[in-house]
Task: structure prediction
Amino acid sequence: MSAMPSYNLGNGVTMPGIGLGTWQCSDEEVRLVVLEALRVGYRHIDTAWLYKCEQGVGDGIKDWVEGGGDRKELCVVTKLPPNANRAEDVERLLNKQLAKLGLDYVDLYLIHGPMGWKNTGDDLDMFSADEEGFANLDNETDLVGLWKGMETMVKNGKAKTIGVSNFNEKQIERIIQSCEIKPANNQVEVHAYFSNKGIVEYCKSKGITVCAYAPLGSPSRGEIGSLETRSLNPLEDPVIVELSQAYKKTPGQILLRHLLQRGVIIIPKSGNPSRIKQNFDILDFELKAEDFDKIEKLDKKQRFFPLLMGMKERNPHPEYPF
Result:
């Protein structure tokens, strides 16, 4: 049994290499999911304002702490929504998020994406359309100014560390050139069909940790993404199925172990108690070099999450990252 990989984010925060994702969970479901995950041994919980389940995440953490758990053992991550991508909006949103989570601080606070959307006055209305049905984008997004608002959250103790999600190299480089506090993490799409090697290697070269969302290929993503990607499911790939039989592990465990060996943090999501445990139980085996390479060769360079939410644009956003 190998040790859980962990990554130093700075400011006293250590991020375990395996975390729990919470996208597509209701408050009621996620409360039970978080509690079960914490009982299994997870200490890294990932959520977001966009997921609309921070209340349930906080309730699950509270249940665990009341049962004897220690909040200080946890790495809790949440994200600033795209309709608050202005420096003056950051503290208002984080205050709301901390209230929902029932926490005094989060361990890592991420900008969920570089593209700003206009705020309609309702912070829950994240992907609004204008009167003609076009995406209501905020084309004046200032990432350098926004980052200064994020840095203020560290200075006032509401976030221990800060980072980004879905940012490209040029966007991160602009922040690095002007920041007081360097991004600790970039959360991006990574799975067997989308290795995303360019941004992964860039971040590692800059001392920025990488967390993979959709590490299993997000089989429940529905109609997100292009038509040609909707039927793609790495869990059903013949190579993965064959390896799962050879190692006597599930296809999911093979996919997750591969990313762990790439030095990428993973946040698989499941509402199924047995699968929550399976996703965590990947430290008792290691993929042989030749099998690791077989999975590397599955890369189709196919992004499943293009970030446009299926809405038509009047003009491309100047900070669209892909």
